[in-house]
């Protein structure tokens, strides 16, 4: 049952989309399932194309991969349909009939909520309001939306079918461990759990279905919105280091801090990680830009990664060295030989 779950280890924006895109191509993944909601944007760059995805899985870069949206996810149906048309994905996409639907009314409710806007720093994309309606059992589902009728199906059954045939399946979770409603920096969190266990629950899978859990970290930490960020550095220092980034969905500038080993340790343990991916290594170590072989990585970058690996107690299987999906060092064979 070759199922891999990809989750974030910090506050989101770690590069999960890049890793899912890489796996889709390198492992010829048969299906990818996106969990979470459309308040999280994943950016994937491949062959000169930039995919900014709020609903579809980042495995879209492999034209042969089926693209599924989990039953426990929440999507704004217009956002979904726009992505399906923009990226010519019709025929590959299946939305579970039970997927929750965000409406303009949910967005308006959030925009009127000063607590969310000013104190929490919410993206105000209607996700929290839709989650409230889901809990109260009055939320519209994908099966209720005529425009989605051709796209709906039973994603749980489809994934089971893939696993029974031995197909490779990737689960793409959203945001990061420290934004979990239960385990993150409450109240400065998102409206759902963001762990690997929660992603499986949204699809309807169990722990024994899983082969690997890849926790993705960036080589530095970023956070959008309010809430604690240990070791946060001033904006001017971030500019000098070249660590300036902006959110995919909101366009807001991300707050920045150096890599935090304590936050990483807890994320690794809570997600029962079997492997780690580190992205944006080229931003911290510019000489690593575009390197795709471990032997050619700068010595200081290698040393830093090996020290992280030793402290976290889990192998670093993937090293991201550029925006392009294939600018990735894949260490799985090397680790397997140890």
Describe the structure.
The protein is α/β, with parallel strands linked by helices and 338 residues long. The protein has one domain: 3-Layer(aba) Sandwich (Adenylosuccinate Synthetase, Chain A, domain 1). The protein is 31% helix and 20% strand. It has helices at residues 16-26, 77-86, 104-111, 114-120, 127-135, 155-165, 196-203, 235-241, 261-270, 281-284, 299-312, 332-336; strands at residues 3-8, 31-34, 42-46, 49-53, 66-69, 74-76, 93-96, 100-102, 152-153, 169-172, 212-218, 220-223, 255-258, 275-279, 316-320, 328-330. It is globular and about 55 Å long. It starts with a strand and ends with a helix. The model has no long low-confidence stretch (mean pLDDT 94). It comes from Pyrolobus fumarii (strain DSM 11204 / 1A). It is found in: Cytoplasm.
Helices and strands in order, then pairings?
Blueprint (H helix, E strand, L loop, with lengths): L2 E6 L7 H11 L4 E4 L7 E5 L2 E5 L12 E4 L4 E3 H10 L6 E4 L3 E3 L1 H8 L2 H7 L6 H9 L16 E2 L1 H11 L3 E4 L23 H8 L8 E7 L1 E4 L11 H7 L13 E4 L2 H10 L4 E5 L1 H4 L14 H14 L3 E5 L7 E3 L1 H5 L2
Parallel strand pairs: 1-10, 1-11, 2-5, 2-10, 5-7, 6-8, 7-9, 11-14, 14-15
Antiparallel strand pairs: 3-4, 12-13, 15-16
Primary descriptors:
338 residues, Adenylosuccinate Synthetase, Chain A, domain 1, ten-stranded mixed sheet, two-stranded antiparallel ribbon, 16 strands, 31% helix, globular, nucleotide-binding, magnesium, Adenylosuccinate synthetase, adenylosuccinate synthase activity
């Amino acid at each position: 049952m070759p199922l891999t779950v990809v989750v974030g280890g910090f506050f989101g924006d770690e590069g999960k989309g890049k890793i899912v895109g890489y796996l889709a191509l390198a492992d010829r993944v048969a299906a990818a399932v996106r969990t979470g909601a459309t308040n999280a944007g994943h950016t994937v760059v491949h062959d000169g194309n930039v995919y900014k995805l709020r609903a579809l899985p980042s495995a879209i870069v492999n034209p042969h991969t089926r693209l599924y949206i989990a039953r426990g996810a929440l999507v704004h149906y217009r956002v979904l349909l726009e992505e399906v048309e923009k990226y010519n994905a019709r025929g590959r996409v299946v939305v579970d009939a039970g997927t929750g639907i965000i409406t303009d009314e949910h967005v308006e409710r959030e925009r009127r909520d000063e607590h969310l806007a000013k104190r929490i720093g919410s993206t105000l994309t209607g996700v929290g309001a839709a989650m409230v309606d889901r809990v109260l059992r009055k939320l519209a589902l994908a099966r209720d939306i005529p425009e989605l009728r051709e796209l709906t199906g039973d994603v749980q059954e489809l994934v089971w079918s893939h696993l029974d045939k031995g197909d490779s399946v990737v689960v793409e979770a959203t945001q990061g461990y420290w934004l979990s409603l239960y385990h993150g920096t409450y109240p400065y969190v998102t409206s759902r759990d963001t762990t690997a266990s929660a992603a499986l629950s949204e699809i309807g899978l169990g722990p024994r279905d899983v082969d690997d859990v890849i926790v993705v970290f960036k080589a530095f930490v970023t956070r959008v919105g309010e809430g604690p960020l240990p070791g946060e550095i001033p904006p001017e220092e971030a500019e000098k280091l070249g660590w300036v980034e902006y959110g995919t969905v909101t366009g807001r500038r991300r707050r920045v801090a150096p890599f935090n080993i304590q936050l990483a340790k807890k994320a690794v343990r809570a997600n029962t990680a079997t492997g780690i991916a580190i992205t944006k290594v080229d931003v911290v170590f510019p000489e690593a830009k575009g390197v795709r072989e471990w032997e050619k990585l700068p010595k200081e970058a290698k040393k830093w990664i090996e020290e992280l690996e030793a402290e976290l107690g889990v192998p670093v299987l993937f090293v991201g060295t550029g925006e392009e999906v294939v600018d990735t060092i894949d260490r799985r064979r090397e680790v397997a030989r140890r």
